[in-house]
Each structure stands twice: as structure tokens, then as C-alpha cells.
Amino acid sequence: MDSLDIDKKRAIELGVRYVDTHWKSVIESEIEVSVLSGGLSSRLYLVEDTSTSTVNPISKFLVRFYGGKLTPKDEPIRPEGGEVKETIVFYAVGLAGLGPKLYGSFDGGRVEQFILSHTLREQDYEQRPETLLELARKVARFHALDIPISQERHQLLDVCEFYLEKRDFEQFRKLTDYAGITDVSLFEDFDVKSEIQWLRKVEQLVNGRIVTICGDLNKNNILIRDEPDKFGERVMIIDYELVARDYRGRDIGQVFAYKLFEMNDGYFNVCCEYPDETWRRSFVTEYLKQTKSLNYFEWDEKLDSVDHVLMEAECFVFHSFHLVVGFFMNQKEDSFFYKMPPDMSRSMLLNLGAQMIAMYYQRKDIFIKTYGKLLDLSN
Known about the structure:
Shape: globular
Structural class: alpha+beta
């Protein structure tokens, strides 16, 4: 029996234990187990009762097994706490009605509620304008969560420096050769050391609220539910591997920057341009309106203004660009990139990694022109 069959059998057993004992009455031939995509470091299975029985109050659920994907447990991209922290966060988010419920946790994984939904796409913003406002409110509610995780800020630039020190251009060229990329100058000419030094100075000048951030608000981690939740909204945030305490601007900036990227059948593509100021202001205005109503800190009219939060977002998104590029450039011989078809790897390296470097230069230039005088960035 291979590892996939073992996982499937285990998934069925866990359903009986954590979801409902009615699953005992369903024979194995009437249970379908489908493999779904997990997060950075997990394998995800959908378990479904395909019988005609109406006994099971829950006919579908998800089983997540940790390990076996992109990042090992000691990967510095993951904040302190690992799988235990992620389970605590998942439970707290579900309890708050912001995400799926936790049915049970076990050594090596957890059992989750299945909610009919689809991954956020650019057309959702276009066809249903309230999507933007619902996402803003969801991010605000997430930021207000009081979760028992490390209260120390996740020092993302330290992680970026770690990647810089470990960078091996020869190993990276082997990966780009596999992906069919001949010109790697954009990656190799990216002066990461100087840029991190610049960011360390700028982040102190910008400042901002430290909150409970999601940490990875790419479109794959934002779902559009078929049916509204208890807030009457359809937007839902999932995958909490990178949840930590950090500047709120990091999440908000990711919403802006990651709007450009979509994955289809495992392939990344650039689907639109960076959102204009009207779009960004609408998001931040709704975010702050929801944040103020939650009343979980003492409001500061200057720090908590639309203009300041926009500046925070435009600054702290730079950290995420460095993180993704640093992660991509530190893949070894056993990298997950080699387990993909070469053209799929190429789409991640070029349509995500290289695009982020180009966007970094573009947004940095705009940032300096917009805020240089205010922050006194002349030196």
C-alpha cells in the first residue's frame, strides 16, 4: 500500500473519530477521497460520503496531514510555533466565524470543515464590487484576533538576511536550467543586501500598528464562498501557516501586490496591473471603518488615518517581495520545483519571482517620490 492509499484510509478513520459516528455506517466503497492542494507544508484530502444515506449530518470534510510539501519544519519562513500554533490559530479563526471550523486535531494533522467555495479571481472583483469591501473587513477582523501565539514581532528582514547568506548562485542556475530560463540577471543583480539595509531604516520611520497578521494573503488563500457566512459576507481567508505578530501594512500591502497574480492548474500568471489609488483607498477606508468599530486599541487620528495606513502598506509589502525571492533562490537538489513540469517551475520563477523584483523597483521609486520628503529619505 503506497503513502497515498495510507493517507486515504487514515482520512476515513479520522472522519469517524472527529466528525460524526454516523460515518461508521457508510461502507468504504461509498466514501470518496480526493487529493486537494495544501499550503506550504501539508497534504489536503476531501472526504465525501457518496452514498444515498441521509444519516450523516456532515457529508464532506477535509483532512490535512502536515509535511510532504514545500517547506520543512525548520524553514525560517515559518514563524515560531509551527503546527501547534497553526492548529490554535485555525480553532480561533473558526470560533470567530472568520474561517472553517476545526473538527479535530491529531498527531500529524487536523480535520476541518469543508465549505463550498472557489479561489478569489480578478473577475470576482469585477463582477461583484463588494468583494473588495468584504475582504477589507475580513482582514480587519483577523487583525483584531487575540490568539495565544508569540507576541514578539516576526522579524521578516532577519529571514531575508538568512536567505541572502545562504544564497548559492550555482545551485540557482541549475534550477533555472531545469526551468528553461537562460537569463537570470534580474535575480543575480538584485542588490538584496543594500535593499534590506534601506528597508531597516525606512520601516522605523514609517512605523505602524503591530497586529495578528495572516502573513500570506495571496489569492490562493482567499476564497469566495458559495453561501454567505454569519456576517453576510462571502469572502473567507484560509491557510494560517505564516500567522504572526507584525505590522498590519504587510497584509494590506500583500492584498495590493498579490492582486496581480493568479494560479491556474498550478501555473502562475500576471492577470492585471497594480491597483490604482482609488482602489487602494477604498480598501483601506473600509478596513479602518471596521477596525475602529472593533475597538481593540486606543485610536490615533494620525497613525490610524487612511494616508498613514496606505504608506504602511506600500512600505511593508517590500518585505514580502524579498521573502518570496529569497525563498525561491534558496532551493536545493530536493526542491519542490524539480517535482513540477519545467514550464510550471518557470511560471513560478518568472511570473511570480521575477515580476516581484521588477515590481519592487517600480514601487520603491513611487514610494520615494510620494513619501521621501515626509520621511526625509534624502540621506
